[in-house]
Amino acid sequence: MPGSIRLFVTCPLEPGAESTFDRAQAHYLGRVMRRRVGEEVVLFNGRDGAWRARITALNATGGRAALAEQLTAQVAEPGPWLAFALLKRAASEIVVQKATELGAERLLPFRAERSVAGAPNPERLAAIATEAAEQSERLTRPAIARVLSLPALLAGWPPGRPLFAAIERRALPFPRDGKSAGLLVGPEGGFTEGELDLIAHTPFVRPVSLGPRILRAETAAIVGLALLAASAGHSI
Amino acid sequence: MPGSIRLFVTCPLEPGAESTFDRAQAHYLGRVMRRRVGEEVVLFNGRDGAWRARITALNATGGRAALAEQLTAQVAEPGPWLAFALLKRAASEIVVQKATELGAERLLPFRAERSVAGAPNPERLAAIATEAAEQSERLTRPAIARVLSLPALLAGWPPGRPLFAAIERRALPFPRDGKSAGLLVGPEGGFTEGELDLIAHTPFVRPVSLGPRILRAETAAIVGLALLAASAGHSI
Questions:
Q1: pLDDT band at B164; cut points 50, 70, 90
Q2: Which of B172, B179, B213 to mutate to test the interface with A (most CBs of A within 10 A)?
Q3: What number of other Cβ atoms are within 10 A of residue B9's Cβ?
Q4: Within-domain flag for A17
């Protein structure tokens, strides 16, 4: 159903089941999108594929929908992992939104030495990822890891997954094997010398360049993910 | 001078010349960046390269700097042209900022049938492009054309410059000749059937895909420009 409203829900989706809407979803459906009882939406929960459902109740505080049929079976949605330094709030939120649109499977915020932002609100980041997953027609939401330091992030990284670090400015050939890779993007002020040294001595990290100009941190995340996807044949 | 403050000015830059700062630049230099008389900045005007200059006066309403030496000769900065449908204000501003970072030479906003935003403030868009040019170490600012309708935009487009229209969702091989190309991105709600028909019948337009997911309009602009640059060998 192209153009349908898609909503992420947490309950199981199966024949004959009923799903509920929370207050925010009810507000969105009824007030923002002007949907009424009897109209259809598409539901997904990250486990049971996408389902057509008919709204059976809707008021200011919640609602319900009856599941009609499965439109798409659940499939795995492998994608790049994005490790990004905490940025100012608006920039971090742009990163989460765009990375979700671009198919990131896992988001790993970390505190860099030059990170100036406080700890992000996990519920707020999850809500942004959910909305982006709904709108971009994913069947899953990216997992958002808890904030780590850069050393802890690298120590816990699966060594078999290459991690491309956007730290070079000169033109480098981009890897052609970005399918199961990760992208590492630093903070607004760049990595410190100590961090660069740590990165350089981490075996699975490979430096890459995103071009000749200085990019903002959130732009680097978006551009790097687009190029990883392209190198993996996921897009264009 | 990596890490220097870079400012766009309008006056000629030549040996022995003096440049002036307007109120906004003086505020930025003195209050935000805490620079003082005697310290150095880098100036560029889009015509005379980049120059090292020493601040000779600075107060709340303006300032002056004495030019010391040229750091970089002016070079042409050819890049893609970006034709983008007017989006909500914040999204249009993101497009202008990111397109400048990504090297766009010319920005051509147009009014699509499903554009919901009012006319943008040209001074505000120019200020955003200027700041992005300063921070990304460009030597030029992108030109920002006045808003046209889609038919007028296409009628005035130089036929020798391919215009890649981000209107397909399936995977298409991306062009390898994006160097002197343009990118066409529609509004939040997509192009209308009539617009798609017009686009399909315009000889220099070539449909491209930005991947399997639905992207927001501003994401499509950023991703499309990154892929055009990569295809032209400008980056990575």
A1: very high
A2: B213
A3: 20
A4: yes
Nearest CA in chain A to B135: A214
CATH number, domain with residue A179: 3.40.1280.10
Residues of B in contact with A233 (CB under 8 A): 171
Chain B residues with CB under 8 Å of A211 CB are 102-103, 229, 234-236
Task: Specify the 3-state DSSP secondary structure of B88.
Answer: coil
- pTM of structure: 0.89
With contact defined as beta carbons under 8 Å apart, do B186 and B221 qualify?
Answer: no
Contact call for A209 and B235, based on CB within 8 A = yes
Question: In whole angstroms, what is the distance from residue B137 CA to residue B81 CA?
Answer: 19
Q: At which residue do the structure tokens 């020493």 appear? A: B54
| Cross-chain residue pair B172–A216, CB shorter than 8 Å | no
CATH code assigned at A54: 2.40.240.20
The minimum CA-CA distance between A224 and chain B, rounded to whole Å, is: 9
Structural domain that includes position B56: 6-72
Asked if residue A1 is part of any domain, the answer here is: no
| One domain, residues A103 and A176 | yes
- CB under 8 Å to A103, separation ≥6 — which residues? A77, A79, A80, A138, A225, A229, A234, B211, B213
Q: How far is A64 from chain B (nearest CA, A)?
A: 27
Kindly compute the dihedral angle of the four CA atoms of residues B211, B212, B216, B220, in this order, to the nearest 10 degrees. 10
| d(CA B213, nearest CA chain A) in Å | 5
Query: What is the percent of chain A where pLDDT is above 70?
Result: 92
Question: Which residue in B203, B84, B215 sits closest to A97, CA to CA?
Answer: B215
The model's pLDDT over B24-73, given as tens digits with 9 standing for 90+, comes to 999 999 999 999 999 999 999 999 999 999 999 999 999 999 999 999 99
Task: Give backbone dihedrals phi and psi of A79, rounded to 5 degrees, phi first.
Answer: -160, 175
Same domain, B46 and B92: no
Cβ within 8 Å, pair A101-B213: yes
Same domain, A106 and A65: no
List of E strands, B63-139: 63-72, 81-85, 106-111
Whether residues B88 and B180 fall in one domain:
yes
SS3 at position B125: helix
Contacts of B170 in chain A (CB under 8 A): none
